[in-house]
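Task: fold both queries, return tokens.
Query 1:
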Amino acid sequence: MGMFANAFTWWNGASWGTTFFSRRNGEEVGRDEAGNIYFQHRGNPARRWVIYDGSNDSSRVPPGWNAWLRGTINDLPDKSLPPRRKFEQAPEPNLTGTMAAYRPGGSLAAKGIRPASTGDYEAWKPE
């Protein structure tokens, strides 16, 4: 499929229609460190959108850009928000479905042996 993948899909980047609309009606206002491109409508600045660099997963939008997209802040994140502090961790996308997903103890997907039942559980029985 290669270069034609974006012609027919919406889940991986932008389709040709979205790209055409964005170039015709939108003004690029910025890019984030993940390569996502942010647009604002030329005629209606309150209308904002993102074209993802890769899969269309909103958890890949950093918090500052998310605030801008939702209209929580009016100016771009670099101008409206303070810089990230040393102790703050970089945001991570949703890891569900990946090898890095959290797997609590007792989960069938977790490594190790499932702990034995302790007998401290009493099943609910309807009266």
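Query 1 returned. Query 2:
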Amino acid sequence: MNKLSKMFTQTLTVIGVMGLVACSHLTSESESMSNKEKAVAVIASIETGDPAAINYINAAQYTQHNLAVGDGLAGFGEVLQALPEGSAKAGVKRAIQDDNYVVLHTEYNFFGPKVGFDVFRFEDGKIVEHWDNLQVIAPVNPSGHTQLDGSTAITDLDKTAENKAIVADFVNTILMNGDMSQINKFIDNEDSAYIQHNPGIGDGLSGLGKALEELANAGLTMKYDTNHKILGEGNFVVSISEGIFANEHVAFYDLFRLENGKIVEHWDTIETIPAQSEWKNTNGKFGF
């Protein structure tokens, strides 16, 4: 059993006997940390095995929306025990905090190399709910970008609400209703104006148009049906949606960077939603 698996096994034993009891120095440290710092620490602990991360999760109330994982800390512990020892890697590239939600954009080695978005909801300083969306890491896209490189600096905190509204409008107008006549309301025409990190799409509106044409020619569908959540901090906004891609039921997680009221950079993950008969919990993929 690896170090992190032992940590979870020991923790769950304590929970069963007397509840989760944190040491006083960990409690003091937790009170001084932001929710963003706690979420990053939890993800980092997948690699490091740092036991302090357990202190940031409400063990009595932890709802899991990863449909391949059982509910609560017990389900998470089972997955960690199945990992080959020393194989797990987790490097957070971007972290966004919106009220009681934190979104992390992370490079993983978790049963193979993956890029993922994790969303944590906090109550009273503890994590009580978790969503994620994972995709296998692919080679660089036609413009030479990876799924994780690019800008990281959070700016324009005073424009958070404005930028969230722009992305919500973009998702509704362009992605859901397909009104491409409005595209320049959101993205400028020059290829240099829109940096793309999707592994199959090049920069600019020309890259997006070419990718959509190739999908159509192959008889494959990309359709956004429902937007479930918009979260943002400053110039970064995340949209969480449901729809169809390559004729499969999927979750779309899209991260946008904005400048001066326009979308200028995009990252995403697309994950197939399994049949309900395969779910390890009954919480659903969304449920915000």
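Both queries returned. Flag for query 2: Residues 100 and 124 are 9 Å apart (CA to CA).
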